[in-house]
Amino acid sequence: MYHNNSINNVIFLIDSCSKCNRDFFIFFFKYFHNTIMHGDKKHISLKLYEIGAIKFGSFVLKSGITSPYYIDLRLLRSYPLFLRTLSNYLFNKIRADHISYDVICGIPNTALPIATSISLDQNIPTIFKRDVIKEHGTKTLIEGLYKKDDKCLIIEDVVTSGNSIIDSVKILRKNGLIITDACFVIDREGDGIQNLTSNGIKAHYLLKISELMEILFENGKISPDIYQTFMKMDNYSGKTPTIPTKRLTFSERGETSKNGVTKRLCKIIDDKKSNLVFSADISDLDRLLKMVDLVGPHVCCVKTHVDIINRFSVDFINKLKALASQHNFLIMEDRKFADIGNILKLQYEGGMYKIVEWADIVTVHGLIGHWAIEALKKVSIGRERACLLVAEMSCQDNFLTNDYTKNVCNLVEASGDFVMGLVCQRKLLDNPSFLHFTPGVKLPQTLINGHENIKKYQDDLGQAYNTPDYVISQAMSDIIIVGRDIYESLDPLAAVTRLKQISYKAYTD
Ligand code: 5BU
């Protein structure tokens, strides 16, 4: 009821506005309203991750401790719309918690734009405490107007120990201000809240770091390894430096598998120093073969969709097989089977494509369960073949749930040697004999305002991309699958070389 009334009011306001005010109202309504209707921790977490404000690696914090993650909200100033949205979330929190104040004070430097955004949107005066007294002019330490006994609300970005807030509060109090509350975006779950409380400051925040990490994990943004490392940390605040365990080489992993195709692929990967699969999604047969001939020396496998090829023929397959042995790569048909066992068997062995005769690897959806694997196995008797189960997809808004993915993982683990691994977006299985193949990969590009750190971007039909470095180092997948970023590149050879170097280095490092 409340929302409907507010929508009607806003629509009325929009309708009665001049063009310029109208744009402002639409903008303001969108963001203000979002915070009421859809604003939640998930939105904030995913957006912070998307803009690169949550980083993973090894970071020495201000306190001297080493942390495997770093929160950098300074980036917010480069994303003004999101800065404004986040500030609105914070203001809603201030309102919901009934905090009273005369002025607000952002803690330098990261929280200053947040406080300014709240100030501008809500018409609340701000003050700001300098780090050092100005040597000239007014020589003031606190800028902005205030009176003795004014109530000042502290705005901060991230709290670990709370010391930055406490240091500022001491000076503000000395200058006659009353401070009882601090509002911030992320509680890093150190001893900050305890310290603030013992200094008479009540803490209000949007998110705990453990909630943020859980959201990132549940949404496939961080691998189980990173998530577990984080969960094992003392109080999640980076007190326990973690040393990532070294990954087995591909050759070592090949040795752990009983599947001949896995063994061959792992050997090729280490021999060619390439964990890159080329997705040859080109309809024109001659162009396809030319491209495969060009990039073949740099990839471990070429992936096809035979049903998109114009003028498909046995001759084409023979030429592809010849290139495979000339350049030493395997062939994967990305058929994504999804029917009952009997049909699947006919599709694999028969029709015009006779996939089993030439594809070392074939993909299959997990939804059919173990009968799919039985059917494929039956057809491939006497041949060295393998299949990959699709556990996750790269396209946005797909219907594969976490439970579905878990079931596919269980199926792979229970399926014996014919399954060589998963097509997925991150590492899902600990057994080193299973390989993770990840599509939706693109080289980093300069995207917005010269920032290269946006990891995810998309095509105009829902395909979402990550960078090769992210997929192998952070999502901990093993092999990347790349199509358009190679064959649509102005210089496919340069693209394939760069992709293979980045992804193999990311794995071996
Ligand atoms: P692209 O041009 O790099 O976007 O092509 C990606 C290829 O990987 C394409 O052949 C898809 O069929 C394939 N793919 C994918 O993009 N996403 C998925 O989740 C799966 C396969 Br499974």
Major beta sheet summary: 8 strands, parallel, barrel
Number of helices: 19
Question: For the residues shown, what is the average pLDDT?
Answer: 86
- Can you name the CATH architecture of the largest domain? Alpha-Beta Barrel
**C-alpha Rg (nearest Å):** 28 Å
Kindly identify the CATH topology of the largest domain.
Answer: TIM Barrel
Task: Give the fraction of residues assigned to helices.
Answer: 40-55%
**Amino-to-carboxy terminus distance:** 56 Å
Beta content comes to 15-25%
Summarize the structure.
The protein is an alpha/beta fold and 509 residues long. Helix content is 42%, strand content 17%.
If you had to describe this structure to a student in words, what would you say it looks like?
By secondary structure, the protein is α/β, with parallel strands linked by helices. The chain folds into two domains: 4-231, Rossmann fold; 250-508, Aldolase class I (TIM Barrel, Alpha-Beta Barrel). Helices cover 42% and strands 17% of the residues. It has 19 helices and 18 strands. The chain has helices at residues 2-15, 19-37, 41-50, 80-96, 111-122, 163-174, 192-198, 209-218, 224-232, 250-256, 260-272, 285-295, 314-327, 341-349, 370-379, 402-413, 468-474, 484-487, 492-508; strands at residues 54-60, 66-71, 103-106, 126-129, 142-143, 152-159, 181-187, 202-208, 276-279, 301-304, 330-337, 361-365, 386-390, 419-423, 435-438, 457-458, 464-465, 479-482. It has an eight-stranded parallel β-barrel, surrounded by six helices. Strands 5-4-3-6-7-8 form a six-stranded mixed beta sheet, sandwiched between helices. A two-stranded antiparallel sheet has the order 1-2. Strand 3, helix 5 (111-122) and strand 4 (126-129) form a beta-alpha-beta unit. Helix 1 (2-15) packs antiparallel against helix 2, helix 3 (41-50) crosses helix 8 (209-218) and helix 10 packs antiparallel against helix 11. The longest helix is centred in the N-terminal third of the chain and has 19 residues, at 19-37. It binds 5-bromo-uridine-5'-monophosphate. Residues 279, 281, 305, 334, 390, 393-394, 423, 439-440, 463, 481-485 line the site of 5-bromo-uridine-5'-monophosphate.
